[in-house]
Amino acid sequence: MHEHKKHDQDLETFYRTVFENTGSAICVLEEDDTISLCNEEFCRLTRYPREEIEGKKDWPSFVHPEDLPRMREYHRARRRDPLSAPRNYEFRLFDRHGGSKHIWLTVALIPGTNRSVASLLDISPIKEKERLLRLAEQNYHSIFDNAGDAIFIHDAETGRILDMNPRACELYGYTCEEALRLGVEGLSAGRPPYSRREAMERIRSAAAGPQLFEWLARKKSGRAFWVEVDLRRAAIGGEERILAFVRDITARKKAEARLAREQERFRVTLASIGDAVICTDRAGRVTFFNHVAEQLTGWPRAEALGRPLPAVFHIESELTGRRMADPTARVLREGVVVGLANHTLLVNRDGRRIPISDSGAPIRDASGDILGVVLVFRDETERRRTERERKEAAERLAGLLQNSIQAMARLVEMRDPYTAGHQHRVAELSCAIARQMGLAEERIEALRMAAHLHDIGKIVVPAAILNKPARLGREEMALVAAHPVTAYEILREIDFPWPVADIVRQHHERLDGSGYPDGRKDDGILLEARILAVADVIDAITSHRPYRPAHPPEAALEEVIRHRGTLYDPAVVDAALAVFRGDLHP
Description:
The protein is of the alpha+beta class. The protein has 22 helices and 17 strands.
């Protein structure tokens, strides 16, 4: 009997040891769901000490309310028939602090009793991994289904299409099932180098590393179009796959074609224009060299390309003989258009010096960043020769015109010896007044010419009237007063570069409209004519006439001062007074 008792004690010790040291949480439930016994693992799982559980806590207090009805139904069914309820199932358990855990439960009735034994395994980490896996799968499908690029999944060995996203269906015009049946060849142009053989070479190469290339594809409609394909190796579900990311580049290819055409037009234009053109990159190395640049520099295009600009574009000052700085350096530094100084010589490869003019401008991209410089220059030799000949011809023409004017002036003076030198003096005084008023030299030259010719109309007045030693009668005065109109008719047929004929016609007009021949007033009279009028009056008063002796300059100045603002322009009178007083304009 003693041996049986010891055996029972040993057996109890064995089961107690197994009960306490198993990896699962275990508890014993009484018929009323009270927990009568639990192991240390159960205490760790629920975070209660044993003394607060055994005989004090019931099973429902640990079960999530949503799972409790199901568990009670299983419990009742098990008592009726142990095989009618599942032995293993999942539920959610609350610990002491309200934390929820996913539990895998194994429950069984203890034979010969109304008690149950429950084994609990915390599967929360597994459930979290499952949740993350589902989330990753959802994200994958979301990315796959909503990607802007077409995506194909290929078998790494056979190249067979295993799946494709909606964008791929949209791009090619096939349903997924149709595309899977067709395969790579059916979605390609189908001719070398865009056939199945080349596609398989690309797919096999992707196993060694990513492949990025352009491919000619074909839509369901039969239209060929360009795509960019990015092949990458990937492991999906433990299997090696090839992912193909496909992007429609039709618009880009058209843009590239347009750009190529524009570049060709640009190249042909620069190659065909009469000026020399050299382009450089940001480093100052030659990237373009047209035919005229070859001719002027003496450098063949093939040799010039890639060289630093100063090596093929040697310039120096015509005045000092010193080498000049590379003009593109400033363009690159400041981003401005730069022109060469005057008297620049290009020293070509043979040492010949050629006068040139040029300008350099920055080449910018769409963002405004400088990519390089375009230098345009031309041979000035012919232009200089033409300019020199033109200048010499102009000087000869001007001399001829001046001689003609002087000849006409002398013709008038020969008929009226009393006014000899009058037109010349009036011209000098008019120019002095004009300078005092700050007129431009071009207007002063026009005034000089008009002053020399202002009495040319008297050529039709009889000499007897011009030299009459007494005051003229009414009819005689009318003949003399017509001389501005006569002069105008003579001069208007001459192609002067200035309104000489108009100035001469108006030199007897007065501010108040009392002058002749047209009775013009104020600003209706040319400024040059107003200056000529004052100079003419001053010289006439100080000159000897057949009917009176010459008056002193003071008398002439008193006359124009007295009629300042009525007959004569106040600004002109003031300038004339400054001339006579020596208060000349600088």
